[in-house]
What does this fold into?
Amino acid sequence: MTSDNDEVFFKWSPEYSVQIKTIDDQHKVLVDILNRLFVAVSKREGDKVIAGILDSLMSYTQTHFTLEERLMRQAKYADLESHMQEHRMLMEKLDALSKKYLLEEKPIYFEMLSFLKTWLKEHIMGVDQRYSAALRDVGFSADSWEREATAEFTAMSEKKKWWEMWK
Ligand SMILES: [Fe+2]
It folds into this structure.
């Protein structure tokens, strides 16, 4: 997604990879949704559009976190609890942001979008890369989780049709 001057708000970089394709794909979708939100806010696309994108962002993020936590649980990853705590804190932030916008009718500021971008970037390159390295170290294969997660995500997407809200 690009803005008028072709500058992408959040550009994916190979250094963000956690070397698990399904996780990388989901992270890329999160980046796409954030970029879509950035464009909508920049162009003042209107409440209905922005509310739809926010809803997509919330439900996609929640599903992604749940699946990622399941992977760490399957691998008996030691730092699962603190990782889950980071996920919970971000969901609370997102929740507060959308409530402010939808209920209190406060505008979305670029500072908030920058915060989300920085959070995601640092989370991926910090704790996400840490757990994926730990899984590799113990020789845990994410293959069966990847198949399961992909099937589940597809089924959920068909039910929620979240992609229609932001594409
Ligand atoms: Fe994570």
